[in-house]
Every structure is written in C-alpha cells, then in structure tokens.
C-alpha cells in the first residue's frame, strides 16, 4: 500500500468557516478519484506540528495510482479552490 501524507500551514487569521471549506473541499475530492482507497483529513490538535495546521492522509494500492491522483482533475480543482488558504505544504509518500 502507498500512503500519501500532506501537511498544510494555513494563513494567519483563517476563520472557522474557511477551515470548514478546506475540509469540505478535501472530502468532496475523494469520491471523484477511484484510485483513492481511503482518506482522512483534519486539523492538528497536538501542538507538535511545527506550524502546520491541517493534515491529509490518502491510501493507494500502487505508486501509479498516486501519480494518477496527482494529475486527476478533481485533485487539481481542489488545489485551485483551496490554495489561497495556506502558505506552505509538505508532502510525503511511502510504501508499507
């Protein structure tokens, strides 16, 4: 299995409504991309995230599925609709 992890550093002053939009934008992406086997996302509550506020975890069967996801129109639409909410993003992919 391939695990795709993403951390978002949100802009200062992001409102609860804007966070809800980010969550909704992430959640609406999953059913549109058949390569996504499972997905979870949410706001950090630990305080150990070194300034990153939001996390995303996506599971794929293969590396190729991850590449399809990356270029998928629904993923690209998520980025276009949401990128104004963050200042930085870090992603990590691993096989387990």
The number of strands is: 4
Strand order of the largest sheet: 2-3-1-4
Which overall shape is indicated by the principal axes computed on the Cα atoms? Answer: globular
Whole-number total of structural domains: 1
Helix fraction, binned, reads 25-40%
Rg, alpha carbons: 13 Å
Report what the structure shows:
The protein has 96 residues and is α+β, with helices and mostly antiparallel strands. The protein has one domain (2-14, 26-87): Alpha-Beta Plaits, CATH 3.30.70.100. The protein has helices at residues 16-29, 63-71, 73-82, and strands spanning 2-10, 38-43, 54-60, 86-95. A 4-stranded antiparallel sheet has the order 2-3-1-4. The chain starts with a strand and ends with a strand. The mean pLDDT is 95.
Strand and helix map with partners:
Blueprint: E1 2-10, H1 16-29, E2 38-43, E3 54-60, H2 63-71, H3 73-82, E4 86-95
Antiparallel strand pairs: 1-3, 1-4, 2-3
Helix pairs in contact: 1-3
């Amino acid at each position: 299995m391939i695990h795709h992890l993403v951390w978002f550093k949100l802009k200062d002053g992001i409102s609860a409504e804007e966070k809800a939009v980010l969550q909704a934008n992430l959640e609406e992406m999953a059913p549109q991309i058949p390569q996504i086997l499972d997905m979870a996302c949410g706001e950090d509550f630990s305080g150990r995230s070194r300034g990153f506020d939001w996390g995303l975890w996506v599971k794929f069967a293969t590396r190729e599925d991850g590449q399809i996801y990356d270029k998928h129109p629904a993923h690209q639409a998520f980025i276009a609709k949401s990128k104004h909410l963050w200042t930085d993003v870090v992603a990590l992919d691993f096989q387990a």
